[in-house]
Amino acid sequence: MRKRSWGFVAVGLLVALLLAGVVSNYASSHPDGLDSSLLKGCTVDSEGEITGGSCPAQQEKEHEVGGPLADYGVAGIDNGFLSTGLSGALGVLLTFAVGGGVFWLLRRRGPAGPDDSGDTARGDRQRAGAAG
Hints:
By secondary structure, the chain is mainly α. It has helices at 3-21, 33-38, 80-106, 120-131; strands spanning 42-44, 50-53. This is Cobalt/nickel transport protein.
């Protein structure tokens, strides 16, 4: 990759880390469209607990598979701001590493063969001498 391309990738990674690590802490905690539609028909108190009615959200179960980055935080870190920011930054780095690895594996390679030595002018002279 050229020097200019590396700079572009580095700046993009830095911006993604900043957004995931800092700005994500200021995202809305109100339910999105899917959560909101699942609560239709239920009575919800100020803490978000279902107190009555009938809605699909009542069928919600605990996640069977947890993990160190479950629920937009890092397990074991009590500070919510730090936990969310660290979770976002680790997610960006993990995604960048996997994506970079895939691109590295699939990168274009030149044809491998006897003409791959880089001295094409000498090969051209030899072929021209043999033909003449």
